[in-house]
Please model this.
Amino acid sequence: MTAIREDLRHAFDAAVAAAHPSLILTQHLPPRPAGQAYVFAIGKAAVPMAEAVETDWGADGLSGLVVAPHGADAGSSLTTLELATASHPYPDERGAVSASRLLAAVAAVPAGAPVLFLLSGGASSLLLAVEDGPAPEVLQAGTRALLNGGADIHALNTVRRALSPLLGGGLAQACPGEVSTLAISDVVGDDPVSIGSGPTVPNPTEAAEALELLGRFDALSAPLEDWLRAQPPAQAFETDYRIIASGPLSLQAAEQALLTRGHDASITADAQVGLADDNALMLAERVRRRPAGRAQVWLMGGEVDVRVTGSGRGGRNVQFAARLAQALDGVPGWTFLAADTDGQDGNAPNAGAFCDSTSWARARAAGLDPDAMLAANDAHTLFEALGDALITGPTGTNVNDFRALGLA
Model:
């Protein structure tokens, strides 16, 4: 790995560390309540968040349930809090059982007891299906249609909040205890209602808006319509909610890591939204217009989208990287890393990928057609073939996209 790639990877690692529960959660925990303590954790970072609470508060006398993606039980050190798993990004039957189990456990908390919810990205999918709700395969079809149609996270969460009795404030309203939430934000703007589709905050939207969005993206089926038309109006309530980690905070940590290594580093965008392709082309134009002779690293974050119209695996960060490599093919002196801080970009086991001024030429020299692979949304395969895929495994947190562009 070249020096600049090593430094960009170091910056990524610093961004992840700045949002990892084992390093940050204890400084935000309230004092342990006297007597029985109730703790529930949901999301991609649920296990390490719950582990941090067990370590800080002590495991004895804790009661609660942790719901995390399938596979999160491997290596878990939880000793008292129970663990259930569900599917991400598409719901499944096992997840429906886990979500229903969580709802029952929350409802069984004694009235007035202090309850701590630990929330992180991914909770929307993990809690979408319940045993008495729309079937997982029906929810899967609707979710795929929304994602492949380019629906942004706000549209997706508006629909999810209406489809699950646990989201959009459902968990908080089902709990007789006094609820407080500590959240790791994976959404641009850090709006609590969008983090995990807001299971512990009031829902500002109604089922009618979800119906309109499903219809707009050709994702509406009869079972979903029947469910949505039967939902009661959303209710307002008070809640105690704190965000303890976010994308902008992680970018600041990455910036400091690069400055320490002697780079002229700066955050140029921490709230990128829209299509990955459009953002990549705008970035390429900035590169072409920049004055020569100044080595820099530009840091970017946010949550872009990708419209999957081809047969590939999608992935918004690799789509961004591939479109940038295509646009800057032949332009010397740049190296780029795009990755998801949770360690998984789309449906592939890769966090993202590196690319540079030689990527398109190396692909052609290897007998590949990079333009066709990009058009087919098959950038994961492209970067795997080039040896440029970034594979980290699950990171234990999720504050969304990380992008770093090194310029000679």
Observations:
- The radius of gyration is 21 Å.
- The chain is about 40% helix and 20% strand.
- Residues 3-13+247-407 form a domain with the glycerate kinase, domain 1 fold (CATH 3.40.1480.10).
